[in-house]
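User: Can you help me understand a structure? I only have the sequence.
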Amino acid sequence: MSRKTDVTATGQSGAIDRFLEDAKRVAVSDAAARLIFALDATMSRQPTWDLATHLQAAMFDAVGEVGGLTIQLVYFRGFGECRASRWVADGRALRDLMCRIRCQGGKTQIGRVLRHVRSAAESGPLRVMVFVGDAMEESIDELCAVAGELGILGVKAFMFQEGPDRRAELAFREIARITGGAYERFDHKAPERLVGLLRAAATYASQGTDGLIRLAAREPEARALLTSLRGASS
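Assistant: Let's start by predicting it. Here is the structure, written out as tokens:
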């Protein structure tokens, strides 16, 4: 990976550049498991963005609790802006970047995210992609074609949907099914559910099914994710 991945050709962001400079000081082990965390930062999420920022920051804390992971943050917003951070081993650095991001109007770019994940998987082992969003404005067939390639590469997509959008649900469920991953929905009124889901996804990425089974013995979100994974593989 280069120091900075600009998935699309966009202008520079001072906050992001500062984050990337800070991230250079974080040691990353090649042996650590890798997880890509991708999110929709378009204007449709603005009404709940302040809360979302808080709970997604808490999710990064949850990832840090698991340990043994390197994480890359990918997000899209605005007019064709889609960015990826470098791989870091410190969830706090990613949390700080997340808190600096503000929504901008624009269409979803889930296809760009999936293609980026495909490239990352081709360059090194990658077990899990987590995506959080509330809408889908692209061709489901095109998204599923790339999802099929991710499945072949062994990447499971954990698709977490905020809100009730039916078209997004259909696409998210199908992407999860094709990759052998999982689909779950959460409500902004119950942010602890999303925190639990990310903890479960991070556990799976770093410790596999055995680790998720152990977590499921005490956390309901882990049980839900395990059930969804088993359903996808049946």
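Now, to help you interpret it: Helices lie at 14-23, 49-66, 91-100, 110-123, 140-152, 166-179, 191-216, 220-233. The mean pLDDT is 84. Let me know which part you'd like to focus on.
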